UniProtKB/TrEMBL annotation:
This is ANKY2 protein. InterPro entries: Ankyrin-MYND_dom_contain_2, Ankyrin_rpt-contain_sf. It comes from the Eukaryota.
């Protein structure tokens, strides 16, 4: 998955959608993402690390094993895939993507979606080629969906209230405390304590006071 035009993230995305493998290594044992990072093509690294094939999500739209119903209704696959593959991970952006789609912005729909995200997270951690970055991303989006559910159930202003809470800054310096606490909580709840990425995040965040 080496772009003929180095640094072109659109071509990188097209190649991924055409089935290019992200874990194939070159003659010096480096993946495309590692090579892109090495030469400073960070936009391409972001595209590769955020790519999730639609077919992997569509798997959950079909009944598996003894299940009579699929874990994810077909109508939710497209909207969920859009959020999964977004490269803007700001919590407000994710809530806005939920809010703008009436199919997603319902308690039952979000419950189905976050459960599927948890399954994908588990699969990312337990597969042979472990993908901690994708696992953490799925877990993080799942946590935001669960918080969306809380606001949809408990607040009159619903998702608008969630967005306001995320953007509200404290009086003395405008720092968004609620947003910081949400992100820290999602990291704390990551279920795979042995993950290198989790340990790096904890080491970076633990000494920093809100």
């Amino acid at each position: 998955i080496f772009s003929p035009n180095p640094g072109n993230k659109e071509i990188t995305w097209m190649m991924l959608e055409a089935g290019a493998e992200t874990d194939v290594v070159n003659s010096v044992g480096r993946t495309a993402a590692q090579m892109a990072a090495f030469v400073g093509q960070h936009d391409c690294v972001t595209v590769i690390n955020n790519f999730f094939p639609r077919e992997r999500l569509d798997y959950y739209t079909k009944p598996q094993g003894l299940d009579k119903e699929p874990k994810l209704p077909v109508k939710l696959a497209g909207p969920l895939h859009k959020i999964i593959t977004t490269t803007n991970m700001h919590p407000v952006k994710i809530v806005m993507l939920v809010k703008e789609n009436p199919l997603l912005a319902e308690v039952e729909a979000l419950q189905k979606c976050y459960r599927v995200l948890d399954l994908i997270c588990e699969k990312c951690m337990k597969q042979k080629d472990m993908n901690e970055v994708l696992a953490m991303k799925m877990h993080y989006i799942s946590c935001i969906f669960q918080k969306c559910i809380t606001f949809l159930k408990d607040r009159e202003d619903k998702l608008d209230g969630f967005i306001k809470s995320l953007l509200k800054g404290r009086e003395k310096d405008g720092f968004p405390v609620y947003q910081e606490k949400l992100i820290r909580e999602s990291i704390r709840k990551f279920p795979y304590c042995e993950a290198t990425l989790l340990q790096q995040l904890v080491r970076s965040i633990a000494p920093v006071e809100i």
